[in-house]
Design goal:
The protein is mainly alpha-helical and 122 residues long. Helix content is 61%, strand content 3%. The chain has 8 helices and 2 strands. Strands 1-2 form a two-stranded antiparallel sheet. Helix 1 packs antiparallel against helix 2, helix 4 crosses helix 6 and helix 5 crosses helix 6.
């Protein structure tokens, strides 16, 4: 896989420059076997960094736990519903946006990151 494609994939997922260089140096973009279907598949972000927090999934879970809809969230954030689905698929969210979502849903999503930091004793 060319360096340009790696850079584009990494940029789309919001990874840092350090991770981008690590992926290039390790050449991690190999083909993995999916244990469920026994077919080959490209690696997912969770394969690269298994302890990575998927904040989008946490937001989606909280939204559904509260019985709220994507339309409800998109109206209050003043964004299109498609943008909400992009947030759900994202491993990272802008801090200002995450603050607004935390206020709307009444849950502090920043504690997820604080827990990881305290467990690693940085």
């Amino acid at each position: 896989m060319s360096a340009l494609i790696v850079d584009r994939l990494v940029f789309q997922h919001g990874f840092s420059q350090d991770l981008r260089m690590w992926i290039r140096n390790v050449h991690f973009f190999c083909v993995l076997k999916d244990p469920c279907t026994d077919k080959q598949r490209p690696p997912k972000t969770a394969d690269i960094m298994p302890d990575l927090i998927h904040i989008g999934h946490l937001i989606r879970e909280e939204l559904h736990t509260q019985g709220r809809t994507v339309t409800w969230l998109s109206q209050r954030l003043n964004i299109h519903r498609r943008a909400c689905y992009r947030i759900f698929d994202s491993y990272s969210v802008d801090t200002q946006l995450l603050l607004r979502i935390s206020e709307l849903l009444g849950r502090d999503f920043f504690t997820e990151y604080s827990t990881v930091l305290s467990s690693k004793k940085v």
